[in-house]
Amino acid sequence: MSAHQKRYALVIDSKKCINCKACVVACRAENSVPLEYSRNWMNEETRGVWPNLMAASHPEQCHQCAHPACVRVCPTAASYQRADGIVVVNQEDCVGCRYCMIACPYNARFFRQDKGVVEKCDFCLHRVERGQLPACVETCPSKVRVFGDLNDPNSKLAELLSQREYRSKKPEAGTGPQIYYLI
Amino acid sequence: MKTIEWGFLIVNYLFLGGLSAGLFFVSALATFLYEHGQPSPYTRIARLGAFLAPWPVMIGCGLLIFDLGRWYRFYKLFLHLRIVSPMSIGSWLLVLFNLVVLLNCYAWLTEEQRNSLFAKLPRALAFVSNFNCDIDHWRRGLAMIGIPISVGVGIYTGVLLGAVQSRPFWNTNLVAQLFLFSALSTGCAALILGLARSGESAQELRLLYGLDICFMVLEFFIVLPYIIHGELSVQAVQDSLRLILGGPFTILFWVFFLGLGLLVPLLVEVRELVPVLVSNHEFRYRRGLASGTAVLILGGGFLLRYIFVLAGQMSVFK
Q: Which residues of A touch B91 (CB under 8 A)?
């Protein structure tokens, strides 16, 4: 098998989401995120008037953008993008200027008052490097999330994106988001 | 929900950094406005500007460092030079600017002032007196080097905001120009305030009024296209402009910044200066009016930063 450069991404099938928030809890536990912060969250949407109502839940987290604005503006290169596309904050180099938070169109970053640094979702990098799935993906009871390699045509993720229609959030911000919401 | 990450400290820093840039720029211009070997009619502007310029930016840098989550790690900003990050470029510019304004301040000290300064040093620092030398002849050189750096500091504060593509209120090159001319105008205003108090600075104030009018006219003609262009832009930009067109910053922007902070002082200065230019009469000024106008300009410059920093962070793509 020929080696290829991985490009990690996430597909979200919101129609399957039951808004149990197990993903939020799993992330919090896995990454020791205090209660006042969150690396991932739910967007709840309701439309219409009783009895013709529609309710949906759209999970969201860092979009691991192809052209991340947070990485561009970071003055110390603490925010950087790995070759596999995952955007990471090196906490040793972060000075806590919060420019990246302002630059992120998704508000996916938060400032840890206790540590004085910025944090965000990194697809549970420590797990991914061990060949495991991110905690939110593994824990989801209704299999809303599919994590995988965009460059691997045999991955479940590539299969879904080739067969289903999808959208990304705020493409007009120009950062090339890599979370794909199935329609 | 979006939180406001950059608050009062950053607003103050942007104002103080711009103020110093303006003070140095005008002071440096005044340094050049005389023939070599001749006494300058504008020495008082150059000297006062040189003496005032270092302090606002140094206080501003302190605020900037204090605003960091880990202030003691600020040195890490100088372990990198990232040309794609306006904050990285700005950090280096500030270092250069601080060096130039401090040297320039020293170069404008008279011999008595220098001697008196070094005499105050504690005994442990007596060796510093070895640096007590006359660098008067550096003034023009420092002005020449410092002008592009001060313009850089004035512009960069706007680029810092304008480069953020996810904030539609900021994401236009006009913000950089707006901040630059506002910075130069506040620098002029601070000098007017300083010189008008003595009551014997008609010639200096005439030059400062002329420069200030130019800067404020340019500022006004940047505010206009900023709003017109925004209204003709995409929906997200139009929505972001609602913050100053019917939103929480409307009165602050139109009445206090544009009205009292820009147009009123502009009209006062035009009213004072233009008849003199037309009739070629001797320029006279009223100390109270000149000082009041300068205070309004300084207040307007501060409000501009306040409105832009906060409104920009509230503007998002929906």
A: 75
